[in-house]
Structures are given as C-alpha cells and as structure tokens.
Amino acid sequence: MARGPMPRAELTRLRGDLELSEPAPVLLFHGGESFYKEHAATLATDLLLADSLRDFNLDRRDGKVTDPGEWVALASNRPMLGKRRVIVVTAAERWLKAGGLKTGEKALQNQLADFADAESKPGTILLLAATADRRSRLWKVLQKRRCAYEFVPMQSIEEAESFLQDRFRNEDIRVERSACRYLAETLGTAIPDLITEVRRLVLYLGDRKELTLEDVEGQVSRTRTHTVFEFVDALGHRDARQALGILDRLLEGGIKSDRKTDVHAIPLILVSLLHRQIRNMILALSLVKDHGVDPGALARELGVPPFVAQKTLRQAHRFSATQLQRTLEELAAVDLRLKSTALPAQALLEGLIFQVCAEPRRRGRGTR
Fold this sequence. Notes:
Layout lengths: L6 H14 L5 E5 L3 H15 L5 H4 E5 L5 H9 L8 E6 L12 H14 L6 E7 L7 H8 L3 E3 L6 H14 L3 E2 L1 H11 L3 H15 L4 E2 L1 H7 L4 H13 L3 H17 L8 H26 L7 H5 L3 H11 L4 H20 L4 H14 L10
Helix pairs in contact: 1-2, 4-5, 5-6, 7-8, 7-9, 8-10, 9-13, 11-12, 11-15, 12-17, 13-15, 13-16, 16-17
C-alpha cells in the first residue's frame, strides 16, 4: 500500500489554499486518521469564518442521516452578518462511493458534484470521510480542483516520536528525545493514546518544565496495555469476578505508580484507555468484515503493533456490534459522571462491569 502525504504537509497546503485563493465550494478531508481530519476541519472553519459570526454561519451534519441536498441548500444561503457559511459533514463516506447508490441517491451525489464544480458559492461544505472511491464523479471533481486532502494514520515509531515532541512543545515542556522514543515504542502510533499520555505526564510534572527518560520510565509501564487487555478479556467472557479484581489492580497500581498525579485523574485515564480499546474493536471488525482489510494489514490501519491488532480482533469477536456500541455509550456515560458528579469512581466502574457482564455472551467465533 502506497504511503499517503504527511499530515502536516496537507495541513500546510490547506492553509495556503484558503489564505491565497477563493475558497472552493467543497473540501474533502479523507483517510484513516480522525485526529488530523478534525484538526483540518477546525483550521478550515477558523479561516473561512474569520470575518463571520460562527453562531449564525456554522452548521454540522451527520452524513449517515442527512443528504447532499440538505448540505447544498444550506451552503447556497447567503451568510448572516458575515462573508461565508460553513457546513461540516462527518461520516460522508456513503456519498463518495462510485456504485451501490439508489437512483435518488445518485442524483443527490451528482447535485453535490455540480456544486463542487461551481466557481463560487456563498458557503463551503467540509466533508470528513474515512474512505473515498476514486472512481466517483465527485472525487474526480475534487481532484481536478485540488480540494481533497488525505490524512493517513502514522505508520512508524519515528512519526510518533515527532508527534510527541510537537505536543510537548505546545505544552512548553522540554523533553529528552530518548523519552519520546520510549513513549512511542511503548504506546505505538495511535494518536488518542499518545495525547492521553502527554496530558497525564504534564499533570505529573506539575510546575516542572522538563521531562526526562527517567520520568517516563517511572510513569509509563510497558505492561499497562496488557492489563487493560486482560480487563476487556474478562468483560468479553462475562467474568465479573475477574474484571473486578483487575479493576482493583488497575486503580491501585495506577495510584501507587503515579503519586504526583491527582488521584481523580486515574479513573478518567482508565476510562479513556477502555474507550480507545472498544473503538479499536469496532474499527477492527469494520475493516475486516466491511472493507476487506487483510488481518495482517490490520496493525497498520489501527496504528498499533501487530500482536495488539490481532488480540483486538479476537476480543471483538466475543461481542456483537450492538454490544460494542452499547459499551461505548456506557463508557461515555461513566466518563460524564466522573467529571460532573461526586459519585465514587470505583462504584461507577463496577456498575459498568455488572452491566456488560449481565448481557449474554456472543456465540460463535472467538468464544470459548
């Protein structure tokens, strides 16, 4: 598989395109790296609405439940107290396919392609999509106008190391290169994991402005991921007793090894790690079943080491898609309660365990 352009290069190109020329009616941010796609959408929105009131001229739509006819109508309206309107459309993959659309849907796709090919419009539609079919007319229009920006997941430790250096620099933290290397080798190339760890280490530093390899080795365990895997395994087998025991170890071990971090942050970090793992399980199933990604290439798509990708896929097969989505929603609810109520963190997480383990285990591949 050919390597796409570097994310920072695409962001630089986007900034230049918007600052130096008339904005195109449609911009596409596609690829497997959600962090940079959202970053690109934020950058484009900030630049396009610099002279407009956001509240009146910014709309967000979900491409799964809305259609191009609605987006084009919104983008064709004149802006209110400003120069431009912006419509951000997430999950737009369906409308970037070359085939498989019904007659009415094909007409809507062509309407969007016509809009994208126009010289000037009152608004700009920002499409965010994981994939884009290069055979579609819409893709060809966007390519002709150089309005498609690709953001692929990081695929090397060196890229992750560079990303970490940038994040610490943004926090005004001097960091030893060896410390970034250790983090990248331990965590892999998944950006949400890297961001979570940077935030945790900044909390650990307190007023200090320098992070050393010794700090990182003391705070980041190479076995932490395995413990989270054990927790998800226990949930997959509906073994509440084992899951409760692992939860105790995770909370106690985290507090003992991280004395300078606010103890209230430990459950939040755990929820973030679990949320990431469940999302990866959903993505792994989708990539293998729906998009035909070879299990051997799964690690590259997920941005994790190969053994992690294979274990993630095995875990995913113990749940139905509905169960995984429900668990994700329950994690989000726990996260909200941790941040907005005084309820004990351990009690909230134990409640999550009982909810998941009460559901029947999926039969078939991956169960024992």
